[in-house]
Amino acid sequence: MAAATNNNCQILNILSDIVLRQTMTLKTYWTFVIILITTCRSFADDDNHEMEEFLKREHSLSKPYQGVGSSSSSHWELMGDAMVTTEQVRLTTDMQSKQGAVWSRIPCHLRDWELQVHFKIHGQGKKNLNGDGLAIWYTKERMQKGPVFGNQDLFTGLGVFVDTYPNEEKHLEAQKTRYTTRTQRIFPFVLAMVGNGSISYDHERDGRPTELGGCNAMVRNLNHDTFIFIRYVRRRLTIMIDIDGQHEWRDCLDIPGVRLPQGYYFGASAVTGDLSDNHDVVSLKLYQLTVLRSETEEKEEEDEITLPSVDNMDLLKMGENEEGWSSIAMFFTILFSMLGCFLLIVVGLIVYSHWNENRRKRFY
Predict the structure, then answer these.
(1) How many CA atoms lie within 13 Å of 125's alpha carbon, on the beta-carbon side?
(2) Which of 136-162 are b and which e, b meaning 16 or more Cβ less than 10 Å from the residue's Cβ?
(3) Cys bridge to 117: 27, 188, 228, 276, which one at CB 3.0-4.6 A?
(4) How far does CA 299 lie from the centroid of its chain?
């Protein structure tokens, strides 16, 4: 867009040079040129700065955590085993059967927003001997204990999960079966889910039936900072991670057609079971995004969203089902296909032999 704007400005400059030199005085000519250059620069600036962001302190959580407390004047509230230290909000300690959460008291009425989460997961357990993970929430409900990383099931809104324990994989190992190479995951794993109040999170399958997508993220016991970036703009959900200590965002999830109502609450929760970890939130920073929209986009988004949904969820599930075939299903598919081809060949040979025999009889 900026290049096209510069080209247009160059053409206008040439035309103005040809026409205005003959029709205007020298003073008027240079006045017009200055206005033209200023206008072109402003258009270029608009193209390069299509989106602006503003930190919303009332929806953010950071050191020294003065806004966290049980009083009605505080912006954030703790639940369960969560505690505030000088360095972080610790949702759970590295002990069994703990769950904790921190929730915003103020509903968010932003149309476009971006949440940057600085978190840390660490503990004494070795790989796959730790659990269970933490979740970042934007939901209608708040301060409700439950089985989904310390929050209630059948939630209404968005959940982004950092799952550190492979429940389904361990269950399959107990049954002496394995994933296919196409469906096996490396944990920890980051995934997202949109709930409408009637969709249950499948804990035994690590949320696969209802996930929008995700990525693996080796975030445990690292010596550098780890971040999750959640952006919601123009009904598009984008999730990125920064976990390598390089201060670079890596793509994790990008889904259009995500409809999230305004007026929901931000929060974070975590849970431990037989296995445990420290689950810490260092900061939650929410930014309001100012996005330029065309008239067409404004008309498309003018309808108020009352219930969370995803436009292309059926297509996402279709793709997941195609990738989710087990090795046994694939074997029988190939076997029956080969049998079908063999049967067609046999039938073809029989028909041909009969035709050839009848053809010979015509000559006798």
Answers:
(1) 22
(2) bbbbbbbbbebebbbbbeebbbbbbbb
(3) 228
(4) 25
31: pLDDT strictly greater than 70: no
* Ordered alpha helix ranges (H), the chain: 2-23, 26-48, 167-174, 295-300, 313-323, 327-361
Token representation of residue 326? 């087990």
Among the listed ranges 41-50, 82-91, 324-333, which one has the minimum average pLDDT value? 41-50
Burial class of residue 298, CB neighbours in 10 A (0-12, 13-18, 19+): exposed
* pTM (predicted TM-score): 0.74
Measured CA to CA, the distance from residue 136 to residue 161 in angstroms comes to: 6
Under the banding of pLDDT at 50, 70 and 90, the label for residue 174 is low
Please state, in angstroms and as integers, the Cα–Cα distance from residue 206 to each residue in 122, 136, 312, 344, 357, following that order.
20, 16, 21, 43, 63
Share of the chain above pLDDT 70, in %: 75
With helix as H, strand as E and coil as C, how does 158-218 read?
A: EEEEEECCCHHHHHHHHCCCCCCCCCCCCCCEEEEEEEECCCCCCCCCCCHHHCCEEEECC
The pLDDT tens digits for 211-261 are: 999 999 999 999 999 999 999 999 999 999 999 999 999 999 999 999 999
Phi-psi group of 122: left, alpha or beta (phi > 0 → left; psi -120 to 50 → alpha; rest → beta): beta
CA distance 93 to 78: 14
